[in-house]
Amino acid sequence: MNILSGNITSIQGSESLSLVKIAVENTIFTSIIIDTPESNVYFKIGKVVKIYFKETEVIIAKNEPLNISIQNKIPCTIISMKLGEILTELHLRFGEFNIKSLITTNALKTLNLKNGDAVLALIKTNEISLSPND
Question: What's the CA gap between 17 and 118, in Å, rounded?
Answer without folding.
Answer: 34
